[in-house]
Write a structure and sequence with these properties.
- The chain has 47 residues and is of the alpha+beta class.
- The protein has one domain.
- It is 36% helix and 21% strand.
- The chain has a two-stranded antiparallel sheet.
- A hairpin with a 5-residue loop joins strand 1 and strand 2.
- The longest helix has 11 residues.
- The radius of gyration is 11 Å and the shape is globular.
- This is SpoVT-AbrB domain-containing protein.
Length: 47
């Protein structure tokens, strides 16, 4: 998947940064920085 650089910059992501894509269960696809997603998973047990 490719994303516009402007979108990455607005989200605070660097080019080459790792992101995780997942469904929030409501039909939406969520993009999150990998480190933030792992932290949320360990803290809350879910994304």
């Amino acid at each position: 998947m490719s994303l516009p650089l402007g979108l990455l910059a607005e989200a605070g992501l660097d080019t080459g940064g790792r992101i995780l894509a997942f469904s929030d269960g409501g039909g939406r696809i969520v993009l999150q920085r990998e480190a933030d997603a792992v932290e949320a998973l360990l803290r809350d047990g879910t994304l």
